[in-house]
Amino acid sequence: MRRDASHAPAWLFDMDNTLHDASWQVFPLMNAEMAAYIQRRLGVDPAEASRIRSHFWQRYGATLLGLMHEHGVKAAHFLAETHRFPELPRMLRADPSQRAAIARLPGRKWVLTNAPRDYALRVLRQLKLLKLFEGVISIEDMRQFGRLRPKPDARMLRHVLRRHQLRPAQCVLVEDTLQHLKSARRLGLRGAWFTRYDHRAVRRQPHAAAKPGARHGRPAYVRARIGSLWRLRSLIPR
To answer: Between β-strands 147-148 and 10-13, what pairing exists: parallel, antiparallel or unpaired?
Structure first.
């Protein structure tokens, strides 16, 4: 029996460290490019640039937001300068069986990424994943009322759901970042914490899995902690 579209599951997939192993080569180079940009822009040494990058990521959820708010940096310029990656094809690593896992999921699917669109499309095409998704929601699509609001901003996520006529209860966010999953849960989305690629992030956040209500090595606001996208079928909203 065909389910009504308004009740069909909808999947929002993060990209870096979810659809591919960004910690292998992409993130190290990306962090270096961001630090180099900060060096040029603010006139600081490498150590201070690295500290500022990390500080902005912790405070604002994205290095770009800190540079915009505190130093007037233009988003388009920063994104273009830090995501060139001429050797991107050789920098990508992913389990090809995960493609079949995504393809067999029922319902609608989007990529929801804080990365710029050009970079996201290059990654998805190279991994032969682009055709599996209804669309790509990149950082350029996360501007509201003149302000950039990337993940974990709940206002942006609420806008995405309205735009695609989705109910929170029918949606599953598949993410490697707990902060993003926590924000989504407040809106009523289910969350799958994907831990396959970034083991360091898991080690950095053991307190989240030890809080009251936590179980099976995950915080209470996460529906499941998974290491394979094949496990997502168990999260299909009923």
So the answer is: unpaired
Output the six-digit token pair for 226.
Answer: 């998974």
Helix (H, G, I), strand (E, B) or coil at 133: coil
φ, ψ at 8 (rounded to 5°): -70, 150
- Provide the 3-class DSSP secondary structure of residue 172: strand
Q: Which two tokens stand for residue 90?
A: 């050789």
Q: Cα separations (Å) of 41 from 52, 71, 75, 183, 189?
A: 12, 9, 13, 32, 38
Specify the amino acid at residue 208: A
Cα within 13 Å of Cα(103), Cβ side = 9
Question: pLDDT digit of tens for each residue in the chain (238 aa)?
Answer: 344 555 789 999 999 999 999 999 999 999 999 999 999 999 999 999 999 999 999 898 899 999 999 999 999 999 999 999 999 999 999 999 999 999 999 999 999 999 999 999 999 999 999 999 999 999 999 998 889 999 999 999 999 999 999 999 999 999 999 999 999 999 999 999 999 997 655 555 544 444 444 456 899 999 999 999 999 998 886 6
d(CA 34, CA 56): 11
**Residue 33 carries which DSSP code?**
H
pTM of the model: 0.90
- Please answer whether residues 117 and 111 qualify as being in contact, where contact means their C-beta atoms are separated by less than 8 angstroms: no
Spatial distance between the Cα atoms of 231 and 227, rounded to a whole number of angstroms = 8
Three-state SS for 111?
Answer: strand
Residue 144 to residue 35: CA distance in whole angstroms: 27
Opening angle at CA 223, ends 222 and 224, nearest 5: 95
The bridge status of strand 135-137 relative to strand 10-13 is unpaired
